[in-house]
Amino acid sequence: MKPERVEELLWERADGTITPDELAELEAFLTKHPESKDLDREISRLAGLLTPRDEVAPPAALRERIDRALATATPPDQEKHTPRAARPHRWDDRWPARLLPVAASLVLGVAIGYLLHPETTDQIDGPQAAGAMRTTTATAETAPAIVDLGADTGRVVASRVGTDLVIDIGLVREVALRLELEAEDGEIRLTRMIHSADGPSETNLEDAKLTVRLRGPGTQRIRVALSEDVSRVLFRATADGTTVIERWIE
Amino acid sequence: MSRDQDTMLVEACLRGERRAFDELVDRYEGPLFNAAFRITGSVEDAMDATQAAFVNAYEKLHTFDPTYRFFSWIYRIVVNQALNVVGRRRTETELDSDTPTETSNPEVAFGEAEVTGFLRQALLELAPKYRMVVILKHLEGCSYREIGELLDIPEKTVKSRLFTARQRMRVILTERGFAP
Fold first, then answer.
1. ipTM of model over 0.85
2. Strand A233-239, strand A242-249: pairing
3. pLDDT tens digit sequence for B82-92
4. What does residue A189 show for φ and ψ, rounded to 5 degrees?
5. DSSP secondary structure letters along A210-231
6. A175 CB-side CA count, 13 A
7. N or C: which end of chain A has fewer CB within 10 A?
8. pLDDT at A132 over 60
């Protein structure tokens, strides 16, 4: 058994979440490897220290203090808030979790369809020089902009999801990719980057322009929040120095 | 109170109905105070952190995204406030030359309060993303699923962060003399 697995099982036992099979596996291992007893004791000890504390009632003075502080606090800026009805829903609110794989399959299917029938591919706006690279455009708010870099390279999918812009990048070979997002008005705020790209990744956010440089192979998801006054974002991608897409995402 | 009710209260507050925020305080004063108390170990510090969290949340309410849970949002605020309080206190303690910082056998030298103090200091040495999962799992008793919902991360990520956090805490505490 790998040391990480032993540690994981010891913690599961301490948490009370270990299954009978796992417990039998762990006990057999500890019997065969008495040197692991130290780790066992160490984890039991730490687990004993890390125990949930009983609930305590807040002192009555706390509510008075909060009320006093709120009375002099600056009210929230109502002008910067978009009422819920006017705010587009997140994907996971609008789509039940069980339908997400179906939705993902549909998106993938559309992408494959575009690959198989390039004549249906729209022309992109702005300059591009990579003839072998196919791109698609879309006008619906959440319809993805897909940049197909070829089966041996990968693809980039950019979608407007509510007030966020989500970019999924999948690269299957070594390629230098540069992505730029520029808001026509308003602000861009980087909220999340999840990546497993093997190469380095560099992000630069200045005013309303976000630039991301990364090197494949690997996958990366970038999620940026757009301020409510952003009407559209210029999305530009460059692969190995060649612009492969430059278009507005509404 | 359901998530939808929270959202309605937030929106009412954003329309200028200040009393709507009072209802949110009624609902979450207790859980937030307890979260702060578990981190700070001091009633006074927990009160400071809870008060600051409510004021921050109120003043920044227009930035709240109603597609997330209000409690998750304000919970993160109070945890950060509490950690800031502990961080400031640690800095003050380090300046006090009479405070013991090392011992060969802290179990003998320190009582329960001091052991808890060591634990808090070990927590502070963790990166925030690791610290948060340890607090939620061990001090708040949340399940992996609940932690994932609170932090808006997948359960798998919760588990991997917790694994790393526990490993680091074990090393930190061992270095401080809490070896078995």
1. no
2. antiparallel
3. 877 876 765 55
4. -130, 125
5. EEEEEESSEEEEEEEEE-TT--
6. 25
7. C
8. no
State the virtual CA torsion across A92, A135, A116, A99 in degrees, nearest 10: 0
User: Per residue in A139-162, is it b (16+ CB within 10 Å) or e — as a string?
Assistant: eeeebbbbbbbbeebbbbbbbbbb
Beta carbons of A70 and B7 less than 8 Å apart: no
Question: What is the C-alpha to C-alpha distance for residues A143 and A23, in angstroms, rounded to an integer?
Answer: 49
The residue among B127, B8, B21, B136 whose CA lies nearest residue B76 is B136
pLDDT above 60: residue B168: yes
Chain center to CA of B84:
10
Closest residue by Cα to residue B45 from B73, B93, B81: B81
Q: Which of B33, B65, B180 sits opposite A58 (nearest CB)?
A: B33
Q: Which residue has the tokens 């003998």?
A: B108
**CA-CA distance, A228 to A231, in Å (whole number)?**
8
CB atoms within 10 A of CB B175: 12
| Record: contact A63-B67, CB cut-off 8 A | no
